[in-house]
């Protein structure tokens, strides 16, 4: 389906037809509740047992949580948000030089999700970057705005260190060795999606991103501090996650669901739009090495007396990632394809 960038500055008064969802597949925003007890974890706490317990409760119940006092400086965050807004504010001519619909590209500006596969488009433009090793990819990144490469490099370095800390907490919260997840994932890749959702004339009819799970191991999301948009599915109901200016939102990706043998869930989430303001979000994805073999941790399924077996078969991340991008975003959970029958 032909698609083009929507971050043009033009304000639509009605939603173009190719964004209108069928009636049963609309967001039904009036039925969405606020999430009152969303976990908030102070990751700077010196009480390790408490941190591990909080992490376990959050991952088992929600698959999502917020963290504060995370060590990524306010200056780094503010500069990242500023350069992202500056990027999407550039002329269409400038942005279209970077446009691609090829999901295998390691740097691309695109729209919707996977325009070659989907029947209905999503009200989103996004810049996707591969970020690690920086030296391998930085030359591909946009050279405008002029500060882009320097600002993004600083941000992703700080976020990567944070990601490693969270992976250690999650390992311990599963009763595993602190470095179990890091060892399994190997030399982790790191991707970034800078998402831009322009004001939408009819938010009830479309999505910024429809319901999906993340194919990677761990996602570290910087939400727009002033505009709501993230919603998560809990017990069959959609809940809005209100932004907190000093927090990151963390969510379990498909690989940690598999590694935990289903103890922790990679939860369905979506992005909705609004009529008033553009919304920006910056997602950092910690990814297994392509050659990493993902398998449920033995202590989580190995039983002494019966013939228990892991929930998921062994697979490489390269195999999983290829499968994920060959689908439409809101099809069944991609992990369903890797169940151990």
Major sheet summary line: 8 strands, mixed
In one word, what is the shape? globular
Strand content: 15-25%
**Helix count, DSSP H or I runs of 4 or more residues:** 8
The helical percent reads 10-25%
Mean pLDDT: 94
The separation of the N and C termini measures 36 Å
| Strands ordered across the widest β-sheet | 2-3-11-8-13-6-5-4
Protein described:
- With about 350 residues, this protein is of the alpha+beta class.
- It contains eight helices and 15 strands.
- Helix 1 links the parallel strand 2 (about 40) and strand 3 (about 65-70).
- Helix 1 (about 50-60) crosses helix 5 (about 150-175) and helix 2 (about 75-90) packs across helix 5 (about 150-175).
- The two termini are about 35 Å apart.
- The model has no long low-confidence stretch (mean pLDDT about 95).
Compact summary:
With 341 residues, the protein is an alpha+beta fold.
Structural key phrases:
341 residues, alpha+beta, 8-stranded mixed sheet, 5-stranded mixed sheet, 20% strand
Question: Could you outline the blueprint of secondary structure elements for this entry?
Answer:
Elements: E1 33-34, E2 40-42, H1 48-61, E3 64-68, H2 74-88, H3 92-96, E4 107-111, E5 125-130, H4 134-137, H5 148-173, H6 180-185, E6 189-197, E7 209-212, E8 218-222, E9 230-234, E10 237-240, E11 248-252, H7 254-259, E12 269-271, E13 279-287, E14 293-294, E15 315-316, H8 317-325
Helix pairs in contact: 1-5, 2-5
């Amino acid at each position: 389906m032909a698609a083009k960038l929507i971050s043009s500055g033009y304000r639509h008064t009605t939603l173009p037809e190719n964004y209108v969802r069928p009636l049963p597949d609309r967001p039904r925003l009036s039925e969405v509740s606020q999430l009152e007890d969303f976990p908030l974890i102070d990751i700077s706490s010196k009480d390790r047992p408490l941190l591990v317990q909080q992490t376990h409760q959050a991952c088992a119940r929600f698959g999502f949580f917020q963290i504060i006092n995370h060590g990524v400086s306010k200056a780094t965050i503010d500069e990242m948000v500023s350069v992202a807004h500056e990027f999407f504010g550039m002329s269409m001519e400038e942005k279209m030089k970077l446009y691609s619909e090829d999901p295998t590209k390691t740097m691309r500006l695109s729209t919707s999700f996977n325009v070659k596969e989907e029947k209905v488009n999503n009200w989103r433009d996004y810049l996707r970057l591969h970020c690690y090793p920086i030296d391998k990819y930085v030359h591909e990144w946009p050279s405008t705005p002029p500060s882009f490469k320097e600002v993004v490099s600083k941000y992703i370095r700080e976020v990567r260190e944070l990601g490693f800390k969270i992976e250690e907490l999650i390992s311990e919260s599963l009763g595993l060795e602190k470095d179990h997840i890091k060892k399994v994932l190997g030399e982790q890749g790191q991707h970034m999606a800078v998402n831009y959702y322009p004001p939408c004339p009819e938010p009830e009819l479309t999505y910024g991103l429809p319901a999906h799970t993340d194919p990677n191991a761990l996602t570290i999301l910087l939400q727009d501090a002033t505009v709501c948009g993230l919603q998560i599915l809990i017990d069959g109901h959609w809940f809005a996650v209100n932004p907190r200016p000093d927090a990151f939102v963390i969510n379990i990706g498909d690989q940690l669901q598999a590694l935990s043998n289903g103890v922790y869930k990679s939860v369905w989430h979506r992005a909705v739009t609004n009529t008033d303001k553009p919304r920006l979000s910056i997602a950092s994805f910690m990814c297994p090495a392509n050659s990493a073999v993902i398998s449920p941790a033995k202590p989580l399924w190995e039983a002494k007396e019966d013939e228990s077996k892991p929930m998921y078969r062994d697979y490489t991340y390269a195999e999983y990632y290829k499968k994920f991008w060959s689908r439409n975003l809101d099809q069944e959970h991609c992990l369903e394809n890797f169940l151990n029958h």
